[in-house]
Give the backbone structure.
Amino acid sequence: MDTPEGIGGLISFLDHVQGFDENDLRKLTEFYRKGIQCVFLRDPLFLIQKLYQATAIDVDLAENVKEIVERSGAGEAADRLFDELLRTGGDSMRSLWKVLYCEQKVLMESPRGVPNEEDSLRWWRGDLKGLLHHMVSEGPSILKEMWLSEEGPELCPEMEELRKVHRAAVLSEEAVTGEPPTPCSQAECQAAPLPPGPPAQHFVGLTMVVGHRSREQTENELAATAQRHAMLMDRDAGRQRVQVEAGTLFRRVYGPGRECGPPRVALVSGGAGMGKSVLLQHLMRQWALGEAFRNFAFVLLFQFRHLNGQGELSLHQLIARWYPHLAGSLAALLSSPETLLMMFDGLDESRIFPELHDDIRSISPDQKMAAVQLAWEVMAQNLVPGCSVLMTSRPEALKTLGKGPPSCRYLELLGFLAPERRMYFRRFFDDDHSARVAFRLLEENEHVYAFSFNPAFCRIACTVLRDSLRKSGGAHQSFGKTLSQLYARYILDILSRHCAPSQGTAEELAKIGQLAFQGLCNRALLFTQEEVLAHGLEPTRFLTGFLSEILEREVRADGETLYSFAHLTLQEFLGALSFFLGRTGEPRLGQALERLEADSSGRFQMLARFLSGITSPLCHHALHRTLASPFPSEVSARVKRWLRERALTRRSEKISFLNTLHCLFECQDRALAREALAPLRRLDLAGLALSDHDCQVLAYVVGCCLSMEGLVLSNTALNGERMEKLGPALHKVRIVWLSDNNLGERGTQVLTEALRDRDWQLQELVLMATGLTDDRCQDLLHALGPQDMLTHLSLGRNQLTDRSIPALRGVTERCRKLGTIWLNNNKFSANGSRHLRSLSALRPGLNIFT
C-alpha cells in the first residue's frame, strides 16, 4: 500500500486517530472538512459505498446521499454526509479516517467529478496523502490553537484588570470607530456599561474569500466585484469561501489550493461601500464582548484617515493618544506581542505609501515618525514583531505593498449573499411586509439586484424603495430599469424632502457634481474644506438641507473638516450629472470624454454608464422637471455620438466593449443601440466571464438589432440561467459560438426552444465542450427542422455515444445545406465512428469528422 511518508502503516495511523478523544476528533475533522469534501467530489458513489461497508453510515443515509448526488449534485451531498458524520460521533469519524487512509490510492486518481467542479479539485490531484500526513503531524498543534481561541491567554491580575478597562472603553461610542476618543479617567472607563451597541445589533454578515485580485485593475471597482461575485457564487465555490466569522481570520487554513499556518498579517480588500470599516468595528465590539478573537488579550483599532494629520510621534504616544487608559501599562502590553491585535482601517486613505523592504529592522516603540509610517512598520513586523495586524483597503491600494509583508493572508470582501440582502432589508424597513414587498421589487429588477451585494448600494436602493412605497401607499411600483434611473430617483427624493424646484438648486447640484468629478479624476473620496470652498459651496449648507444627505461631514481630532459622498457610485452619478447642469457642462464634457478614452484602468466605467443613462428619456424628463433647469440637448447628442464611435473603436478591447454595451443599455434608446452596432459583423466576447446582468444587457442590445451575423460567447461562464437571459435574442444571430461553457440541461433546453423558431436563419452552431449528453443532444437535433441556411455544426468534446447516431443522421437528411459536422473527442465506439463518417456519402460536400 502507498502510505503517506511519516505515518507508517494502517495500525500506526489508526492508533494516532484513536489517541484523540471524541471532542478533539470532531474539531479536527471539521478543520479538514473542505479537503475531505473535495475528496468526496472526486468519486462520490465510490466513497459512499466504502463508508457504508466500514459502517460509518447506515443504509438509509447511504441511499439518501446517493439521491442528493443525482438530484442536486455532489456538493450538496457532501454537506449532508459531513453534517451527519459529525453529528453521529466518534466511531463514524474514525471509520471515515480509516476509509480515507485505506482507499487513498483509488481516491488519488484523476477526478471523476462533474466538469464545473474541476477548479476546486485541481490542487487535490494526488494530495490526499498530504492531508493525512498533515493531520498526523499538525493535529496536536491545531488543537492547541483552537483551545487558545476558545479560552484566551493567561494574564496576570494587573493585565486582566486592564483588559476589563479596555473592553469597557472599546464599547463606548468613540473608541469602537477607531477615532481618537475623548480622554477619560480609569474610574470612568471601569464604570462604562457593556451593552450590545448598534454595530452588534445591526451588523449583517459579509462574505470573504481567501485571495485577492492581484492583476492590474482594468474594470471599475463595483463592476469588477459584481463580476467576481457572480462567478464565485456560480461555481461550486462554496467550498472555497471563508465566511466572516469573528475569530477565524487568524487561524491556519487547510483546504483546496492552500495550506498555511496562522498569519501575522491579514489584508482585507474590498471596494468602496463594501463594509470594511463596519466589519472592523463589529469585530472589535465582538472581541470586547468576549465573542471573538479570544486568543488576543488586547485589540486596538486605528483609521488611516485620522492617522494622516497626526504628525510625528512614537507608537507609545499613538496608543496613549487613542487609548489613554492604556498609557500607564504600554511596556507590559507590548511585551507580549503574540496577544496583541492591531487593526488599521482604510490603507487607501493613507497620504503616504512607504516602501516595504525585505530586510527586517528593529524599531523601538519610543522612536518617532509619521503616524502613517508607524502603521506600515507594525505591518512589516519591524515594530512590535510578533503582534497580529488586520488591515483593510480598496483593491487598488494593495499594489503599493508589492509582494506584501511577511506571513500575510489576503482576503477579498464580497459583501452580501442573497440571505444577507434579505436580512438587510428586514432591518432597514419598519415592518416585515414592507421589507418583503421592497425586496421582491429589487429582485424583479435584475440589473439593479446584481449590484446589491454592496452594503452601501443596498442602502441607497432601500431608501428609494422605502420612499416609493410611502408615496404609493404601499402599492407595488417599479423604480426603473437601470442604475441611472435608480440614482436619479434617489437624488429627486432627497430634493423633494428639502426644497421646491428652483434654478438655484440646479446650480448647487452642478457645483457639487463638479467637486465629485474632480475627486474621480484625482482618485479622491475625501475632500477638505478648502476644496469645497473652491467650488463655490458654502460648508454651513452641509449641516441642514438636501446637501446634508449627499455629503457626509467629519471633523478630525486635529480640527480638520473632511467631506465625503455617501457612496462612490453617488459621487460618480453626480459627477456625470454635472455635465447636464449649468452653462459650463458642454465645454467640460469634451475634456471629460477625452479622459475617459485615454483611461486604461477602467475606473471611469460607472461614470460612462451614468453619462449615458442620464440621456435616457425617463431620467432626462424627471431631472429636468424637478430641477426646473433645461438640459442642453447638445450634451445628450454629444454623449450618444461618442457611444456610436466607441462601439466601433473598442470592439477588440473586450472589457471596454462590454462596458459600452452596458452604456447602451443605460440609454434605453433602441434606435441608438441598433445604429451603434449596425457596422459590426459580430459581437465577440469570448474569454470574458459574463454575469447574469451582462447577459441581460447583451440580450437587450442584440434584440435592438434587426439581425446580426455572429455572436461569439465561447468560454464565457454561460450556464442555464444566463442562457435564459440570452434566449429571446438568439434568433437574431446567424452564427452562434457557445463552446467551453457548461450549459447544463437548463441551458440546452433554452437553446432547443430557440431552434424551434422557424424564422431563425441559423448558419453555424458551435457547441464544443458544453456538456452535451445523448439525451440533450437528441432533443436539440430534433429541434433542427428543415433548415435552409445551416452549413456548420460543431459538437466535439462532449459526451455523445452511439445513441446519438440516429439523431445525427436525421440532421444530415433534413438540413440539405449542412456541409461540416465536427464530432471529435466524444465517446463513439469504433463502429459508431465508421458509421458516422460513412454518412458523408449521403451527398456531395458533406464532411463529418469524428
User: Anything to note?
Assistant: Residues 128-151 form the longest helix (24 residues). The mean pLDDT is 83. The radius of gyration is 30 Å. DSSP finds 39 helices and 21 strands in the chain.
